[in-house]
Q: What sequence folds into this?
């Protein structure tokens, strides 16, 4: 048992916490790496929540403003679009944080592939603003986003199995 660093406070935590080498969490190498991946997962969830709230709230406001009449319905549509963009960027940043996952998890290739699909989808989406780009290109964006989401779900299942949480992986 390690002694607390503060001799006055016997309940002060020690600055070093040893991870059990048999624990799968020890494969993360440090608490900093583990925290970075955990922060990434939180950002992904917040990104999803922001997108859902933007779509639901935006639709409600669009119908409310449209019922009132006029061009005011454009304001919630723009806000909804900005919310979707913000949620997408937050989710991508979260997935980038998850790139620190250890190789032992057998999930690293999945998260790298998911990030590549997300970035390609964003770039193709930006390309649709360029004149003379074929209209069918937006379906490629949707397909890449779907693939990225599926890869991320499989990534999370592998992480759950790696940290020996089969009940989490089965959800």
A:
């Amino acid at each position: 048992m390690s002694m607390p660093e503060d001799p006055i406070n016997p309940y002060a935590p020690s600055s070093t916490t040893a991870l059990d080498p048999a624990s799968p969490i020890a494969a993360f190498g440090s608490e900093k790496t583990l925290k970075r991946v955990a922060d990434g997962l939180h950002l992904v969830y917040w990104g999803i929540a922001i997108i859902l709230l933007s779509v639901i709230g935006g639709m409600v406001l669009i119908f409310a403003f449209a019922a009132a009449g006029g061009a005011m319905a454009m304001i919630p549509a723009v806000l909804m679009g900005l919310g979707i963009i913000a949620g997408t960027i937050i989710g991508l940043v979260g997935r980038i944080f998850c790139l620190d996952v250890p190789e032992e998890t057998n999930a690293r290739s999945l998260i790298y592939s998911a990030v590549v699909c997300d970035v390609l989808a964003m770039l193709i989406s930006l390309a649709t603003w360029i004149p003379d780009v074929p209209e069918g290109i937006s379906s490629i964006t949707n397909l890449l986003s779907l693939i990225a989401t599926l890869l991320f779900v499989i990534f999370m299942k592998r992480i759950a199995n790696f940290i020996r949480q089969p009940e989490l992986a089965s959800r």
Observations:
- DSSP finds five helices and no strands in the chain.
